[in-house]
Design brief:
The complex is a heterodimer of chains A (173) and B (410). With 173 residues, chain A is mainly β. Chain A folds into 2 domains: 33 residues, no CATH class; 124 residues, no CATH class. Chain A is 4% helix and 29% strand. Chain A contains 1 helix and 10 strands, in the order αββββββββββ. The longest helix of chain A is centred in the first third of the chain and has 7 residues. Chain B is built from 15 helices and 11 strands. Chain B has a 5-stranded mixed β-sheet, sandwiched between helices. The relative contact order of chain B is 0.20.
Chain lengths: 173, 410
């Protein structure tokens, strides 16, 4: 055992000692604080990897999930490899209709995504044909009108988008 | 109880005890020092609390969540060096909000592996006003899925809010019951001298605070804090031979440790488990099995649990087996988990009232439980005669969960 052992000889002294004995505040000479404003900027060259075909299909107005032929489950977000069965999945087109499972009204617009300002609604939707819930913005409806299980559908935009996920959103069916 | 105590966690494994605990002050913006200075404060406090000299430490485990909040990568070795621990071994541990809990488990494993007799565990984070609150939200949101959750405007308050909305639908839990947790934890913080936000609140005041992500309002959400916490763990044999105060104080053993995980995107979890913290349940069961706890609500005397949001505390009551699924709101109505109640939870004030400095959280929780078990807490928050305590912290939406159980011997 690699202990720095010295045996029990005398009581432990104070961990930090002050040879000048500044009882009131031993760190009195270190209390002035200087503040800096520092800035970091990063740009990432980010690959969407084996899920890229999902994003490419969005450009054609098509929603793709990935089906595991071992368990029959359809992953959305898609996964090239079913994590449960470690089986390579197959792309499957989904109709883009579903049911609202849960939602939240967010009062502040995030700095990192284009939500069209605030407030905005986020929702988990059970899309027909998918085994998982998909998270996205819900538009064209007021929070007060929402009911669990209400039908919703995927809507696609045509204009330019920042992130490819902004190509679509949910709205009431 | 004492008779049983001697057998808890005894499966032929090396007995590990807590020798010392130390906290820095928690604050929304500590400018009287840098994160390195708070680490020194917490480590100094823990060593003095344990009656230990720095030279006796064998290794350190350093806990922090984000390299970017402090604008410094590799902080672990810097902290290690700031109290002169080179050339000893160190490791940095990260697991979101569970970081501190995972660091305690790492130290436990290293002591049981014989890598040393005495381990320093330190957690710290500069969350307060290092960056703007919008940037802090972004940096934490980046621990959700940046391919799928971030680009649609996702963030943690929203994920937790949607989980809680389903809990409300499924079980009838109310926003008032969630608000009661905020009242309790801010209130408990009044009795902790290092707490960031002690408040005497009413349910109405919590309900009237601005909505962040419905149903969550500002006073349902935990704090953003600057702070550090430290713990000294040792094998019992090492402590007996080396710690000056060991014979004079109650022995606090670390008798249970459990860690479990869930799918990080809530949408990937089975709908039946959507409004429950499945990984927390599993982590708790592991820790209970190790500690020989069969009826947690009866056997535990005090707990510090992860109240990142008021509803997350309610859901933790259920996942930790302190009530049945769906009953947590009613437990809150009954005051079961208040100071003076059957099983006080978050006597320190928790992440809502004491503070939330991600990497420090799990370690600060352990500091509170050890203080409670020794009977050394402020009398206004001391749980009388506490013998067995639990800590619970998690990453994400209960994605990585760490549960520990501490016991006072005799």
């Amino acid at each position: 055992m690699a202990s720095w052992e010295r045996g029990l000889s005398e009581p432990a002294r104070r961990t930090v000692t002050d040879p000048l004995g500044r009882d009131q505040d031993p760190f009195a000479d270190f209390r002035r604080v200087m503040l800096l404003e520092l800035e970091q900027r990063f740009r990432y060259r980010h690959s969407l990897g084996k899920t890229s075909r999902f994003f490419l299909a969005l450009e054609e107005g098509v929603l793709l999930g990935s089906r595991c032929l071992a368990c029959g489950g359809v992953w959305l977000p898609p996964r090239a490899l079913c994590p449960d069965d470690l089986t390579i999945t197959s792309w499957q087109e989904l109709p883009g209709t579903g049911r609202l499972m849960s939602w939240t009204g967010c009062s502040r617009a995030p700095s990192y995504a284009d939500t069209g300002g605030a407030p905005y609604l986020l929702a988990y939707v059970a899309l027909e044909g998918a085994s998982t819930l998909f998270l996205h913005r819900l538009r064209g409806v007021d929070e007060g009108e929402l009911e669990p299980g209400m039908p919703v559908r995927v809507a696609f935009s045509r204009g330019p988008v920042g992130h490819p996920l902004e190509r679509f959103w949910f709205e009431p069916a | 109880m004492a008779e049983r105590a001697r057998t808890r966690g005894d499966r032929g494994l090396t007995d590990v005890v807590v020798l010392g605990v130390g906290l820095s002050r928690f604050s929304h913006d500590r400018l009287d020092g840098s994160i390195r200075d708070w680490v020194v404060e917490a480590v100094t406090a823990a060593l003095e609390d344990g009656g230990l000299e720095r030279d006796r430490l064998d290794l350190s485990v350093m806990a922090y969540e984000s390299d970017h909040l402090a604008g410094q990568l590799g902080q672990g070795i810097i902290w290690h060096d700031s109290v002169g621990l080179a050339p000893r071994p160190t490791v940095r541990v990260e697991g979101g909000g569970a970081t501190g809990g995972l660091a305690i488990r790492s130290a436990l494993a290293q002591l049981r592996a014989g890598f040393g007799g005495c381990a320093l565990v330190v957690g710290a984070e500069r969350v307060g006003k290092s960056v703007s609150s919008a940037t802090a939200t972004e940096l934490f949101a980046m621990s959700s899925d940046t391919d799928w959750e971030l680009p649609v405007g996702g963030h943690f308050t929203a994920y937790y809010a949607m989980i809680m909305r389903e809990h409300m639908r499924r079980y009838g839990t109310t926003e008032e019951q969630m608000a009661q947790v905020s009242v309790k934890n801010h209130g408990n913080a009044r009795f902790h001298p290092l707490a960031q936000k002690p408040m005497a609140l009413t349910v109405e005041e919590v309900m009237a605070s601005p909505v962040i992500a419905s149903p969550y309002k500002l006073l349902d959400c935990s704090l953003l804090s600057d702070g550090a916490a430290a713990l000294v763990l040792a094998t019992r044999e090492w402590a007996r031979r080396n710690a000056h105060s060991f014979a004079d104080r109650p022995v606090i053993r670390l008798v249970g440790s459990g860690v479990a995980t869930d799918r990080p995107r809530p949408g990937d979890r089975p709908w039946g488990a959507f409004a429950g913290f499945a990984a927390k349940r599993r982590a708790a069961e592991m820790a209970y099995a190790m500690a020989g706890v069969e009826e947690p609500r009866k056997e535990l005397d005090v707990a510090e649990i992860y109240d990142s949001y008021t509803g997350a505390e309610l859901m933790a009551y259920e996942a930790l087996g302190l009530c049945e699924p769906g009953e947590s709101g009613e437990m809150s109505d009954l005051g079961v988990f208040e100071l003076g109640g059957e099983l006080p939870i978050n006597p320190s004030g928790g992440l809502l009232g004491f503070g939330a400095a991600a990497g420090a959280t799990g370690i600060a929780q352990a500091a509170e439980i050890v203080t409670q078990l020794r009977g050394e807490a402020d009398p206004r928050r001391q749980v009388e005669g506490a013998q067995l305590g639990l800590t619970d912290s998690h990453a994400g939406t209960a994605t990585i969960c760490a549960v520990h159980i501490f016991e006072r011997e005799g």
